[in-house]
Amino acid sequence: MIITQKSQYAMRAVFELARREGCGPVKIGEIAEAQAIPPRFLENILNQLRQGGLVESRRGKEGGYLLSRLASEISAGEVIRLTQGPICVAECCGGTVEERCPFHGDCVFLPLWERASRALESVYDGTTIADLVGQEMTRHAGALMYSI
């Protein structure tokens, strides 16, 4: 399974909101700059994330976007499914292509694809946005340690 650019941008946007959790709404320009996301794509992605219930928006001078739930309650899998659909390693395990497959109903590979998809889902669903923020903090803390 290839994670689309849109899903990568969505992950970065949610990640940035999680980094600023508790600091109030974040403006689109700040998210775009911090995560190197083209602003013209970011607005559509944030709208999709808002419709999916992962972020909320606030209007006005002090407005912007913030997570609608704690970062510890949002998994990478949720963001990926919302922006690109089911997590599958092959088209046929997503449920929409089966009718076009000449081996539909008698495919020796389908159980393999399904096991691989479940393993991938386990990784994505078992990783919260808070986990990723924590990993970043650990990485940067280690980079600041030095000896003379």
Compute the number of strand runs.
2
Q: Topology as H/E string?
A: HHHEEHHH
Tell me the strand order in the biggest sheet: 1-2
Please, what is the average pLDDT?
90
Q: Write down the overall geometry.
A: elongated
List keywords for this structure.
about 150 residues
Q: What is the compact description of this entry?
A:
With 148 residues, this protein is mainly alpha-helical.
Write the layout of secondary structure elements.
Blueprint: H1 5-19, H2 28-35, H3 39-51, E1 55-58, E2 64-67, H4 76-84, H5 110-125, H6 129-144
Antiparallel strand pairs: 1-2
Helix pairs in contact: 1-2, 1-3, 1-4, 1-6, 4-5
What does this 3D model show about the protein?
With 148 residues, the protein is mainly α. It contains 6 helices and 2 strands. The chain has a two-stranded antiparallel sheet. Helix 1 crosses helix 2. It starts with a helix and ends with a helix. The mean pLDDT is 90.
